[in-house]
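In this section we walk through a basic example: taking a raw amino acid sequence and producing a predicted 3D structure, encoded as discrete structure tokens. The instruction is simple. Fold the sequence below.
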Amino acid sequence: MKTARYGVALGAAAASLMLAPPAMAAPEYSVNYCGYTKDVMDGSLRRCGTGWFYDPSTWEQLKVQDNNQDGHSAVLFWSRGGTDFGSVWATSGVGTATTEDVNFPEGVTVSFRVCAGEAGPAEILLDTCGSWRTVTT
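The resulting token sequence is shown next.
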């Protein structure tokens, strides 16, 4: 009798697995950091910002967050194939972030880096930039 009950239970479990929808692939996050800038309040050096590239398979998002009270905005600067460029700015102060939806063609290479900058003149402070991070859509 025990064998029959286990067989029915296993059969029901297998049937429910066959009816379940396939699992979706996890979205890809790529994170990058900028260099260090001096905090205007206590003089400590901290990373000025964080940037993310997010590819959930239908569109892409670029996000940048200002991490330091240094008097600068944080900017995520991106390049697609060395011919197409853009930027996303976090201009509202430390702890704030900006997300931008983009739609890159599938299979292209996008490189991005995070820097401090002056949003008014759109000036990127290159000596604060972190290293380039490259992803393929």
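Looking at the output, two observations stand out. Residues 2-19 form the longest helix (18 residues). The radius of gyration is 22 Å. In the next section we compare this with other chains.
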